[in-house]
Amino acid sequence: HWMTEVLPRLQLARQAFPDLYDRIDVCLVNRNSAFAEKTLSWLGLPEEKIRVAKDAEHLQADLLIVPSLPGITNATPEWVLDWIRAELLPFAKVPHSMRDGRFIYIARGKSPRRRIINEDEWIRCLESLGFVTIYPEDFSLEEQLWIFEQAECIVGAHGAGLTNLIWCKAGTKVLEIFLNDHFTPAYWSIANCLGLSYGVGRYRLSESGGS
């Protein structure tokens, strides 16, 4: 949501007010992370004007600018993808620990949610086919941009790591894995706009809780 909804709202405000960064005192955001701070700085927002919202904190403003969402949730507009790729892809950087990543599997072993119980088996199978396993959280944002821009085929369970499909080239093959009959069109929408070759795989929980 940060890439496809929050940052584009900032761009909408800048289109309405080209001098936005000069006229505002504070840009209030709801996420306190190095990731959020880095992307805002890449877009030119002065660090001293970024303020993270806190629970039970009340602020009063003389002028409040509240941009609308850029589109419908889970249906990213094409202009958003064109804009964010143009703004952020120039920051891509080759990872020191990875040179060949044409075929990648996005692992979820370090995530507490939507974990694939027998993921080790998946990884062994995919690596035997030439795939490289990555944990996105082990790479900087700059490195993730490079990895996904270079990729030719991507396999991964539904999760935030697939937001990186934004950086892929047209024609990149994508297989998104869902549990049972669950489906959300968020990444299909991105793939469709960018001309990626998108497919869905499913896995089911066994009676013992495994997959």
Q: Order the strands across the largest sheet as they lie in space.
A: 4-3-5-6-7
Q: End-to-end span in angstroms?
A: 28 Å
Helix content: 25-40%
How many strand units? 7
Described by strand count, sense and barrel closure, the largest sheet is:
5 strands, parallel
- Oligomeric grouping of the chains: single chain
Individual helix count: 7
Secondary-structure element series: HHEHEHEHEHEEHE
Low-confidence stretches: 206-211
- Inertia-based shape: elongated
Strand content: 15-25%
Task: Write down the overall mean pLDDT.
Answer: 88
Radius of gyration: 19 Å
Structural class: alpha/beta
Task: Describe this entry's structure for a reader.
With 211 residues, this protein is α/β, with parallel strands linked by helices. It has seven helices and seven strands. It is 32% helix and 15% strand. The strands form two sheets. A five-stranded parallel beta sheet has the order 4-3-5-6-7. It has a two-stranded parallel sheet with strand order 1-2.
